Amino acid sequence: MATDVSQLPRSAHSGAPWPVLAGLGALAAVAFWDLVGYESYRRVTDRLEGANEFFFAPTGASPGYVLGIAAYLLYHRHRDLVAAWGQPARPLLAGLLLVLSVASLAWAQYTGAQHLLAAGLGFFLLGAAESLSGRRGLQAVAPSAFLVFLLVPAPALVFNAFVYDLQLAIAAAAVEMVSWVGIEGFQAGDQIVTRQRIFQVIESCTGLRITETLVATAPLYAAVFHRSDRRMLALVALTPVIGLLVNQVRVVSLVLSPYSHVDSVHLAQGLIMMVVGVLGISAVDRLLERRNLFPRRARPAEAAAGVPGAARFTACIAVGVGLVVLRFAVPGWSSEPGEPSVQRLRTALRQMPSTDEEVDREFLGSVDFTDRFHRRYEASGREIGLFVGIDDRTHLGRSIVSTKTEVGASGWILEDRWELPTDDGDLRALVIYSPRERARHLVLVRYGGVSGPLAESARYALALDRTRWRREAPAWAVRVDARLEPGEKSLERTTAALQAFLEQIEPQLGAVGIL
Questions:
Q1: β strands within 120-184, DSSP E
Q2: Rounded to an integer, what distance in angstroms lies between the CA atom of residue 133 and that of residue 135?
Q3: CA dihedral of residues 457, 460, 462, 466 (deg, nearest 10)
């Protein structure tokens, strides 16, 4: 039997939908309250704290800042929601978005995966807007939903695939730019070497955090100055270019400054670069304005255009209540973490002469391991470096697969790379060169317990390693290296020596679940 809309409370169908919007907002605030303490999964080893971490840590997302802007945009565009109140909705789209919201929150509670919680809030905003205000309502909340989705970090495997190349590109550009002011220098991998100093381009120098913060600022700028949606999209699309350019200027200023090692200088630069970035957004906006592209948006009248049907109103409230219930009712999955340790490997190999080698954690950045060690052994008449890293998968968004794992330390230039087929699977082979040591090394790397990019990204998106479907065996990486001596057969001899060393220690590696 159809429900008579006239029998619903007036606040549900009148031209003043504020009680409905306030109620949905309160339900969403309770259901997604855990986002207030949102933290990135990847560990930052650049030793950044406080304000410096806010401005520069590449693996964070400034949740308080982003959620604050998202809330402001909802308030700023409330006239659009009111004017579109009761417009025809697309039931399938609205239903799909609301179902995705419920599923995301429930799975986030089960797995403890906050990126799913952020996705759930984004889906709820879009689903409720589509249900109650149709296409125009969806467009009204789209900027806020975009910012919420911005809190979802890229899979670590994807992040690792480009961040080191970005560091190298920034170092190369900085060497070129300092030459413009008469300073000679050269690039050694991720290092900028001049007569005065050596500057290392670490992950926090990539400008990813500054760029993310500016991308979140672009919709705020567009809202404050009443830009059209298309102008807002244009500014958001161009802001990454502004962010990377601003960061490049920051890196060059650090190379030139004798006080760049002082934390307060970094913080001051962060504030200055944010101001410069906003001025850059303003400059692009003025250019678009001058060319009369994407004119200012008209502010809609604050009047309801219709009445949402009873089913649409009831569905949104029911979903909001359901989200609150799920937040407290869904039990989190728990399991005793594994204990992958390389301590047994250290003990098993102690009969071989060796020396400790320091792990360059600042170079590795967000590439982290549950347990790891690095030593140099005497074998086959030469020094062979052995690095072993294990990841027990207890931290979401972490991947040990990276060019940094393979290169090993700062200041090395990757000259060549190829795959070396073996009976036990392919080895990654690299030739790296250190200008400081004037030495070339051959490196062989093997990974285990790691799936392909698509599979790893899907497992991260669904947080499967925090469920009953988690992989009990750890992920691992083994890296061996030796110096390449002069001679035509040096590469072949060194390759054979490294493979023989791997075969020699294979029983010990197998005892700790590797190889």
A1: none
A2: 7
A3: 150
